[in-house]
Amino acid sequence: MAGPSRAGEAAPGAFDILRIRPFLVLWLSAAVVFLGVMAQNIARTWLAFELTGSNAALGGVLLSFGVAMLVATPWGGVAADRLPKRLVMQVATLLLVLSSAWIGVATATAVVTYWMLIVAGVVQAIGFALFSPARMALLAELVPRDAVPGAVSLILVNSEVSRVVGPALAGLVIGSFTFGTEAVFLTSAVLLALGIGINLALPPGRRRVDASGRSPLGELMDGLSYVRRRPDLAALLWCGIGVTMAGLPYLAFLPAVASDLFDLGSLGYGLLSASSAVGAVLTGLTLGRRSHRGDQHRLLIVAGAVFGLALAAMAAAPSFVLAVVALVVVGGALLAFQTTSQALLLALSDIEFHGRVQGLVMLSFGAFGVAALPLGILADAIGARWTLAGMGVVVVGIVLVFAVVSRRTRAASRLLDLG
Protein backbone atom coordinates (compact mmCIF):
# COMPACT_ATOMS: atom_id res chain seq x y z
CA MET A 1 0.00 0.00 0.00
CA ALA A 2 1.24 3.49 -0.72
CA GLY A 3 2.33 5.28 2.41
CA PRO A 4 0.67 8.25 4.06
CA SER A 5 1.28 11.77 2.91
CA ARG A 6 4.28 13.46 4.50
CA ALA A 7 3.70 15.75 7.47
CA GLY A 8 2.48 19.16 6.47
CA GLU A 9 1.25 18.01 3.09
CA ALA A 10 -2.41 18.13 2.18
CA ALA A 11 -4.12 14.89 1.27
CA PRO A 12 -4.16 14.33 -2.51
CA GLY A 13 -7.13 15.79 -4.35
CA ALA A 14 -9.40 13.90 -6.70
CA PHE A 15 -7.33 14.54 -9.82
CA ASP A 16 -4.10 13.70 -7.98
CA ILE A 17 -5.56 10.34 -6.98
CA LEU A 18 -6.54 9.59 -10.58
CA ARG A 19 -2.93 10.16 -11.63
CA ILE A 20 -1.99 7.02 -9.67
CA ARG A 21 -2.02 4.57 -12.58
CA PRO A 22 -3.13 1.38 -10.72
CA PHE A 23 -5.97 3.30 -9.08
CA LEU A 24 -6.97 4.78 -12.44
CA VAL A 25 -7.21 1.25 -13.85
CA LEU A 26 -9.34 0.18 -10.87
CA TRP A 27 -11.52 3.26 -11.32
CA LEU A 28 -12.04 2.60 -15.04
CA SER A 29 -12.75 -1.08 -14.40
CA ALA A 30 -15.32 -0.22 -11.75
CA ALA A 31 -16.92 2.36 -14.08
CA VAL A 32 -17.48 -0.22 -16.82
CA VAL A 33 -18.68 -2.93 -14.42
CA PHE A 34 -21.06 -0.59 -12.60
CA LEU A 35 -22.54 0.70 -15.84
CA GLY A 36 -23.27 -2.85 -17.00
CA VAL A 37 -24.71 -3.87 -13.64
CA MET A 38 -26.90 -0.79 -13.18
CA ALA A 39 -28.41 -1.11 -16.64
CA GLN A 40 -29.01 -4.81 -15.98
CA ASN A 41 -30.70 -4.05 -12.64
CA ILE A 42 -33.05 -1.56 -14.25
CA ALA A 43 -34.03 -4.06 -16.95
CA ARG A 44 -34.50 -6.94 -14.50
CA THR A 45 -36.62 -4.88 -12.10
CA TRP A 46 -38.78 -3.55 -14.93
CA LEU A 47 -39.13 -7.04 -16.41
CA ALA A 48 -40.29 -8.39 -13.03
CA PHE A 49 -42.89 -5.62 -12.79
CA GLU A 50 -43.97 -6.25 -16.39
CA LEU A 51 -44.35 -9.99 -15.82
CA THR A 52 -46.27 -9.71 -12.54
CA GLY A 53 -47.50 -6.13 -11.96
CA SER A 54 -46.84 -6.60 -8.23
CA ASN A 55 -44.74 -4.70 -5.68
CA ALA A 56 -44.33 -7.96 -3.78
CA ALA A 57 -42.87 -9.57 -6.91
CA LEU A 58 -40.37 -6.73 -7.17
CA GLY A 59 -39.46 -7.39 -3.57
CA GLY A 60 -39.07 -11.09 -4.37
CA VAL A 61 -36.42 -10.36 -6.98
CA LEU A 62 -34.50 -8.30 -4.45
CA LEU A 63 -35.07 -10.96 -1.79
CA SER A 64 -33.29 -13.56 -3.92
CA PHE A 65 -30.40 -11.14 -4.28
CA GLY A 66 -30.40 -10.29 -0.58
CA VAL A 67 -30.47 -13.83 0.82
CA ALA A 68 -27.65 -14.89 -1.51
CA MET A 69 -25.67 -11.81 -0.48
CA LEU A 70 -26.11 -12.57 3.21
CA VAL A 71 -24.78 -16.09 2.70
CA ALA A 72 -21.98 -15.31 0.25
CA THR A 73 -20.67 -11.92 1.35
CA PRO A 74 -18.63 -13.01 4.41
CA TRP A 75 -16.91 -15.59 2.21
CA GLY A 76 -16.19 -12.87 -0.35
CA GLY A 77 -14.30 -11.02 2.37
CA VAL A 78 -12.33 -14.16 3.22
CA ALA A 79 -11.48 -14.63 -0.47
CA ALA A 80 -10.26 -11.02 -0.68
CA ASP A 81 -7.83 -11.61 2.21
CA ARG A 82 -6.85 -15.15 1.20
CA LEU A 83 -6.46 -14.92 -2.61
CA PRO A 84 -5.02 -12.40 -5.10
CA LYS A 85 -7.64 -9.67 -5.22
CA ARG A 86 -7.44 -9.30 -9.01
CA LEU A 87 -8.30 -12.98 -9.44
CA VAL A 88 -11.29 -12.63 -7.12
CA MET A 89 -12.53 -9.62 -9.12
CA GLN A 90 -12.13 -11.51 -12.42
CA VAL A 91 -14.19 -14.47 -11.23
CA ALA A 92 -16.82 -12.13 -9.82
CA THR A 93 -17.15 -10.17 -13.06
CA LEU A 94 -17.50 -13.40 -15.05
CA LEU A 95 -20.48 -14.34 -12.86
CA LEU A 96 -22.02 -10.93 -13.54
CA VAL A 97 -21.58 -11.49 -17.29
CA LEU A 98 -23.40 -14.82 -17.05
CA SER A 99 -26.27 -13.40 -14.99
CA SER A 100 -26.94 -10.75 -17.64
CA ALA A 101 -26.35 -12.78 -20.81
CA TRP A 102 -28.65 -15.59 -19.67
CA ILE A 103 -31.66 -13.34 -19.10
CA GLY A 104 -30.95 -11.45 -22.32
CA VAL A 105 -31.06 -14.65 -24.37
CA ALA A 106 -34.16 -15.91 -22.51
CA THR A 107 -35.98 -12.62 -23.16
CA ALA A 108 -34.96 -12.54 -26.83
CA THR A 109 -36.30 -16.08 -27.32
CA ALA A 110 -39.53 -15.29 -25.39
CA VAL A 111 -38.94 -18.01 -22.77
CA VAL A 112 -38.16 -15.73 -19.82
CA THR A 113 -40.13 -16.39 -16.63
CA TYR A 114 -40.19 -14.89 -13.17
CA TRP A 115 -38.17 -17.72 -11.60
CA MET A 116 -35.34 -16.99 -14.03
CA LEU A 117 -35.11 -13.47 -12.63
CA ILE A 118 -34.85 -14.96 -9.15
CA VAL A 119 -31.94 -17.21 -10.21
CA ALA A 120 -30.24 -14.32 -12.00
CA GLY A 121 -30.48 -12.31 -8.80
CA VAL A 122 -28.72 -15.09 -6.89
CA VAL A 123 -25.89 -15.31 -9.44
CA GLN A 124 -25.45 -11.54 -9.43
CA ALA A 125 -25.40 -11.51 -5.63
CA ILE A 126 -22.57 -14.05 -5.55
CA GLY A 127 -20.66 -11.93 -8.06
CA PHE A 128 -21.14 -8.81 -5.92
CA ALA A 129 -20.16 -10.70 -2.78
CA LEU A 130 -16.81 -11.49 -4.37
CA PHE A 131 -16.23 -8.25 -6.29
CA SER A 132 -16.90 -5.54 -3.73
CA PRO A 133 -14.70 -6.61 -0.79
CA ALA A 134 -11.79 -7.35 -3.14
CA ARG A 135 -12.21 -3.99 -4.87
CA MET A 136 -12.23 -1.98 -1.64
CA ALA A 137 -9.37 -3.95 -0.06
CA LEU A 138 -7.26 -3.47 -3.21
CA LEU A 139 -8.05 0.25 -3.22
CA ALA A 140 -6.42 0.57 0.20
CA GLU A 141 -3.20 -0.88 -1.28
CA LEU A 142 -3.09 1.47 -4.27
CA VAL A 143 -3.33 4.96 -2.76
CA PRO A 144 -1.70 6.82 0.16
CA ARG A 145 -3.50 6.37 3.46
CA ASP A 146 -4.60 10.03 3.58
CA ALA A 147 -6.13 9.64 0.12
CA VAL A 148 -8.37 6.68 1.02
CA PRO A 149 -11.52 8.77 1.75
CA GLY A 150 -11.20 10.61 -1.55
CA ALA A 151 -10.51 7.37 -3.41
CA VAL A 152 -13.57 5.75 -1.84
CA SER A 153 -15.67 8.73 -2.94
CA LEU A 154 -14.43 8.45 -6.51
CA ILE A 155 -15.08 4.71 -6.64
CA LEU A 156 -18.60 5.14 -5.28
CA VAL A 157 -19.22 7.99 -7.71
CA ASN A 158 -18.65 5.42 -10.46
CA SER A 159 -21.72 3.55 -9.38
CA GLU A 160 -23.74 6.74 -9.20
CA VAL A 161 -22.60 8.00 -12.61
CA SER A 162 -23.68 4.61 -13.89
CA ARG A 163 -27.05 5.18 -12.24
CA VAL A 164 -27.34 8.44 -14.18
CA VAL A 165 -26.43 6.91 -17.53
CA GLY A 166 -27.58 3.30 -17.07
CA PRO A 167 -31.18 3.84 -15.90
CA ALA A 168 -31.85 6.71 -18.29
CA LEU A 169 -30.58 4.80 -21.31
CA ALA A 170 -32.16 1.53 -20.18
CA GLY A 171 -35.52 3.24 -19.63
CA LEU A 172 -35.38 4.90 -23.03
CA VAL A 173 -34.39 1.67 -24.80
CA ILE A 174 -37.01 -0.43 -23.00
CA GLY A 175 -39.73 2.13 -23.72
CA SER A 176 -38.76 2.84 -27.32
CA PHE A 177 -38.01 -0.54 -28.90
CA THR A 178 -39.85 -3.84 -28.92
CA PHE A 179 -36.50 -5.57 -28.38
CA GLY A 180 -35.43 -3.04 -25.71
CA THR A 181 -35.31 -5.27 -22.65
CA GLU A 182 -33.16 -7.99 -24.18
CA ALA A 183 -30.91 -5.35 -25.76
CA VAL A 184 -30.18 -3.91 -22.32
CA PHE A 185 -29.29 -7.31 -20.88
CA LEU A 186 -27.03 -8.31 -23.78
CA THR A 187 -25.27 -4.93 -23.89
CA SER A 188 -24.72 -5.19 -20.16
CA ALA A 189 -23.02 -8.56 -20.67
CA VAL A 190 -20.68 -7.03 -23.25
CA LEU A 191 -19.74 -4.15 -20.93
CA LEU A 192 -19.04 -6.54 -18.08
CA ALA A 193 -16.84 -8.66 -20.34
CA LEU A 194 -14.90 -5.48 -21.16
CA GLY A 195 -14.41 -4.99 -17.43
CA ILE A 196 -12.71 -8.38 -17.24
CA GLY A 197 -10.20 -7.22 -19.85
CA ILE A 198 -9.48 -3.95 -18.03
CA ASN A 199 -8.93 -5.82 -14.77
CA LEU A 200 -5.95 -7.60 -16.34
CA ALA A 201 -3.96 -4.35 -16.04
CA LEU A 202 -4.38 -4.29 -12.23
CA PRO A 203 -1.69 -5.52 -9.85
CA PRO A 204 -2.67 -8.90 -8.36
CA GLY A 205 -3.02 -7.58 -4.80
CA ARG A 206 -1.25 -8.93 -1.76
CA ARG A 207 -2.56 -11.77 0.35
CA ARG A 208 -3.14 -10.75 3.93
CA VAL A 209 -3.22 -14.16 5.57
CA ASP A 210 -1.27 -17.41 5.25
CA ALA A 211 -3.66 -19.70 3.40
CA SER A 212 -1.87 -22.74 4.72
CA GLY A 213 -2.27 -21.75 8.37
CA ARG A 214 -6.03 -21.37 8.66
CA SER A 215 -9.09 -22.79 6.94
CA PRO A 216 -11.46 -20.36 5.21
CA LEU A 217 -13.96 -20.97 8.01
CA GLY A 218 -11.27 -20.21 10.59
CA GLU A 219 -10.41 -16.96 8.82
CA LEU A 220 -14.08 -16.02 8.73
CA MET A 221 -14.39 -16.61 12.46
CA ASP A 222 -11.22 -14.58 13.05
CA GLY A 223 -12.82 -11.66 11.20
CA LEU A 224 -16.03 -11.89 13.24
CA SER A 225 -14.04 -12.06 16.49
CA TYR A 226 -12.01 -9.04 15.43
CA VAL A 227 -15.15 -6.94 14.93
CA ARG A 228 -16.64 -8.12 18.24
CA ARG A 229 -13.51 -6.88 20.02
CA ARG A 230 -13.90 -3.47 18.40
CA PRO A 231 -17.10 -1.69 19.55
CA ASP A 232 -16.33 1.24 17.24
CA LEU A 233 -16.28 -1.02 14.18
CA ALA A 234 -19.34 -2.97 15.36
CA ALA A 235 -21.37 0.24 15.81
CA LEU A 236 -20.40 1.46 12.32
CA LEU A 237 -21.30 -1.87 10.75
CA TRP A 238 -24.66 -2.13 12.46
CA CYS A 239 -25.56 1.46 11.56
CA GLY A 240 -24.64 0.84 7.92
CA ILE A 241 -26.63 -2.38 7.79
CA GLY A 242 -29.66 -0.78 9.45
CA VAL A 243 -29.74 2.33 7.25
CA THR A 244 -29.27 0.31 4.07
CA MET A 245 -31.84 -2.30 5.08
CA ALA A 246 -34.45 0.29 6.00
CA GLY A 247 -33.78 2.89 3.30
CA LEU A 248 -32.26 1.40 0.16
CA PRO A 249 -35.35 -0.67 -0.77
CA TYR A 250 -36.83 2.60 -2.04
CA LEU A 251 -35.17 1.60 -5.33
CA ALA A 252 -37.56 -1.36 -5.60
CA PHE A 253 -40.58 0.94 -5.47
CA LEU A 254 -39.53 3.40 -8.15
CA PRO A 255 -41.30 1.47 -10.95
CA ALA A 256 -44.54 1.66 -8.97
CA VAL A 257 -43.95 5.34 -8.12
CA ALA A 258 -43.38 6.16 -11.80
CA SER A 259 -46.30 4.09 -13.11
CA ASP A 260 -48.93 4.17 -10.36
CA LEU A 261 -48.39 7.60 -8.78
CA PHE A 262 -47.34 9.66 -11.80
CA ASP A 263 -48.41 7.51 -14.78
CA LEU A 264 -45.04 7.87 -16.56
CA GLY A 265 -44.07 4.22 -17.13
CA SER A 266 -40.52 3.08 -17.92
CA LEU A 267 -39.33 6.55 -18.94
CA GLY A 268 -40.41 7.99 -15.61
CA TYR A 269 -38.72 5.09 -13.85
CA GLY A 270 -35.44 5.82 -15.58
CA LEU A 271 -35.69 9.54 -14.78
CA LEU A 272 -36.47 8.90 -11.10
CA SER A 273 -33.50 6.55 -10.79
CA ALA A 274 -31.24 8.97 -12.60
CA SER A 275 -32.31 11.93 -10.44
CA SER A 276 -31.09 10.32 -7.22
CA ALA A 277 -27.87 9.44 -9.01
CA VAL A 278 -27.34 13.07 -10.06
CA GLY A 279 -27.36 14.13 -6.41
CA ALA A 280 -24.97 11.32 -5.56
CA VAL A 281 -22.53 12.28 -8.33
CA LEU A 282 -22.43 15.93 -7.24
CA THR A 283 -21.93 14.93 -3.61
CA GLY A 284 -19.30 12.31 -4.44
CA LEU A 285 -17.23 14.73 -6.51
CA THR A 286 -17.37 17.23 -3.64
CA LEU A 287 -16.25 14.62 -1.13
CA GLY A 288 -13.47 13.52 -3.47
CA ARG A 289 -12.01 17.04 -3.42
CA ARG A 290 -12.23 17.79 0.31
CA SER A 291 -9.47 17.14 2.83
CA HIS A 292 -11.47 14.75 5.04
CA ARG A 293 -9.85 16.16 8.17
CA GLY A 294 -13.12 17.05 9.84
CA ASP A 295 -15.29 14.98 12.14
CA GLN A 296 -16.21 12.00 9.99
CA HIS A 297 -18.62 10.62 12.59
CA ARG A 298 -20.57 13.88 12.55
CA LEU A 299 -20.71 13.85 8.74
CA LEU A 300 -21.95 10.24 8.84
CA ILE A 301 -24.76 11.12 11.26
CA VAL A 302 -25.85 14.22 9.36
CA ALA A 303 -25.80 12.41 6.00
CA GLY A 304 -27.84 9.50 7.36
CA ALA A 305 -30.44 11.78 8.93
CA VAL A 306 -30.78 13.85 5.74
CA PHE A 307 -31.20 10.64 3.73
CA GLY A 308 -34.11 9.53 5.92
CA LEU A 309 -35.80 12.94 5.91
CA ALA A 310 -35.45 13.31 2.12
CA LEU A 311 -36.87 9.83 1.62
CA ALA A 312 -39.95 10.81 3.63
CA ALA A 313 -40.22 14.05 1.64
CA MET A 314 -40.11 12.10 -1.62
CA ALA A 315 -42.95 9.91 -0.39
CA ALA A 316 -45.08 12.98 0.28
CA ALA A 317 -44.24 14.76 -3.01
CA PRO A 318 -47.49 15.79 -4.77
CA SER A 319 -45.87 16.11 -8.21
CA PHE A 320 -43.24 14.34 -10.29
CA VAL A 321 -40.99 17.42 -10.27
CA LEU A 322 -40.94 17.58 -6.46
CA ALA A 323 -40.28 13.83 -6.29
CA VAL A 324 -37.27 14.34 -8.56
CA VAL A 325 -35.96 17.16 -6.34
CA ALA A 326 -36.33 15.01 -3.22
CA LEU A 327 -34.59 12.10 -4.92
CA VAL A 328 -31.61 14.32 -5.80
CA VAL A 329 -31.20 14.94 -2.06
CA VAL A 330 -31.79 11.23 -1.30
CA GLY A 331 -29.00 10.22 -3.66
CA GLY A 332 -26.54 12.81 -2.39
CA ALA A 333 -27.12 12.04 1.28
CA LEU A 334 -26.90 8.29 0.75
CA LEU A 335 -23.62 8.63 -1.16
CA ALA A 336 -22.17 10.81 1.62
CA PHE A 337 -23.27 8.26 4.22
CA GLN A 338 -21.76 5.31 2.33
CA THR A 339 -18.50 7.10 1.53
CA THR A 340 -17.95 8.22 5.10
CA SER A 341 -18.83 4.80 6.50
CA GLN A 342 -16.44 2.98 4.13
CA ALA A 343 -13.61 5.44 4.78
CA LEU A 344 -14.02 5.17 8.55
CA LEU A 345 -14.03 1.38 8.42
CA LEU A 346 -10.87 1.28 6.29
CA ALA A 347 -9.16 3.81 8.57
CA LEU A 348 -10.12 2.09 11.84
CA SER A 349 -9.52 -1.55 10.86
CA ASP A 350 -6.15 -3.28 10.56
CA ILE A 351 -5.07 -3.87 6.99
CA GLU A 352 -4.91 -7.66 7.30
CA PHE A 353 -8.66 -7.61 8.05
CA HIS A 354 -9.73 -5.17 5.31
CA GLY A 355 -11.26 -7.84 3.08
CA ARG A 356 -13.24 -9.48 5.85
CA VAL A 357 -14.45 -6.17 7.29
CA GLN A 358 -15.53 -5.06 3.82
CA GLY A 359 -17.29 -8.40 3.41
CA LEU A 360 -19.30 -7.64 6.53
CA VAL A 361 -20.08 -4.16 5.15
CA MET A 362 -21.63 -5.79 2.11
CA LEU A 363 -24.06 -7.64 4.38
CA SER A 364 -26.04 -4.41 4.34
CA PHE A 365 -26.87 -4.94 0.68
CA GLY A 366 -28.03 -8.46 1.45
CA ALA A 367 -30.17 -7.08 4.26
CA PHE A 368 -31.62 -4.53 1.83
CA GLY A 369 -32.74 -7.35 -0.45
CA VAL A 370 -34.25 -9.31 2.42
CA ALA A 371 -36.20 -6.26 3.62
CA ALA A 372 -37.54 -5.50 0.13
CA LEU A 373 -40.08 -8.36 0.07
CA PRO A 374 -41.93 -7.55 3.33
CA LEU A 375 -41.78 -3.86 2.45
CA GLY A 376 -43.22 -4.68 -0.98
CA ILE A 377 -46.06 -6.61 0.64
CA LEU A 378 -46.64 -3.66 2.97
CA ALA A 379 -46.66 -1.27 0.00
CA ASP A 380 -49.31 -3.40 -1.72
CA ALA A 381 -51.41 -3.24 1.46
CA ILE A 382 -51.11 0.41 2.52
CA GLY A 383 -49.60 2.12 -0.53
CA ALA A 384 -46.12 3.08 -1.66
CA ARG A 385 -46.31 6.58 -0.17
CA TRP A 386 -46.93 5.44 3.40
CA THR A 387 -44.35 2.68 3.14
CA LEU A 388 -41.65 5.01 1.83
CA ALA A 389 -42.44 7.60 4.52
CA GLY A 390 -42.15 4.95 7.21
CA MET A 391 -38.81 3.81 5.81
CA GLY A 392 -37.50 7.37 6.08
CA VAL A 393 -38.59 7.65 9.70
CA VAL A 394 -36.90 4.35 10.57
CA VAL A 395 -33.65 5.50 8.92
CA VAL A 396 -33.61 8.66 11.05
CA GLY A 397 -34.23 6.58 14.17
CA ILE A 398 -31.33 4.23 13.41
CA VAL A 399 -28.97 7.16 12.86
CA LEU A 400 -30.00 8.79 16.14
CA VAL A 401 -29.33 5.54 18.03
CA PHE A 402 -25.90 5.32 16.38
CA ALA A 403 -25.16 8.92 17.38
CA VAL A 404 -25.75 8.06 21.05
CA VAL A 405 -23.83 4.75 20.92
CA SER A 406 -20.97 6.30 18.98
CA ARG A 407 -20.55 9.12 21.46
CA ARG A 408 -20.37 6.67 24.34
CA THR A 409 -17.95 4.38 22.50
CA ARG A 410 -15.61 7.21 21.57
CA ALA A 411 -15.72 8.62 25.09
CA ALA A 412 -14.80 5.20 26.49
CA SER A 413 -11.93 4.91 24.01
CA ARG A 414 -10.58 8.31 25.07
CA LEU A 415 -10.69 7.26 28.71
CA LEU A 416 -8.73 4.10 27.89
CA ASP A 417 -6.15 6.13 25.99
CA LEU A 418 -5.75 8.48 28.95
CA GLY A 419 -5.41 5.51 31.28
Structure notes:
This protein has 419 residues and is mainly α. It has one domain (14-418): MFS general substrate transporter like domains (Growth Hormone, Chain: A), CATH 1.20.1250.20. Helix content is 83%, strand content 0%. It has helices at residues 14-18, 21-52, 55-82, 85-108, 114-142, 148-176, 180-199, 216-228, 231-247, 250-261, 265-289, 296-316, 320-348, 354-361, 363-382, 384-418. Helix 10 (250-261) packs antiparallel against helix 16 (384-418) and helix 12 (296-316) packs antiparallel against helix 16 (384-418).
Write the layout of secondary structure elements.
Elements: H1 14-18, H2 21-52, H3 55-82, H4 85-108, H5 114-142, H6 148-176, H7 180-199, H8 216-228, H9 231-247, H10 250-261, H11 265-289, H12 296-316, H13 320-348, H14 354-361, H15 363-382, H16 384-418
Question: How much helix is in the residues?
Answer: over 70%
The tally of domains stands at 1
Number of strands: 0
The appropriate CATH architecture is Up-down Bundle
The level-1 CATH class: Mainly Alpha
Question: Low-confidence parts, pLDDT < 50 over ≥5 residues?
Answer: 1-8, 415-419
Helix-strand makeup class: mainly alpha
Q: What is the distance, rounded to the nearest whole angstrom, between the alpha carbons of the first and last residues? A: 32 Å
CATH superfamily: MFS general substrate transporter like domains
Radius of gyration based on Cα positions: 20 Å
The number of helical segments is: 16
Shape: globular
Biggest β-sheet description: none
The helix-strand sequence is: HHHHHHHHHHHHHHHH
Instruction: Provide the CATH topology.
Output: Growth Hormone, Chain: A
Binned strand content:
under 5%
Overall mean confidence score, pLDDT? 78
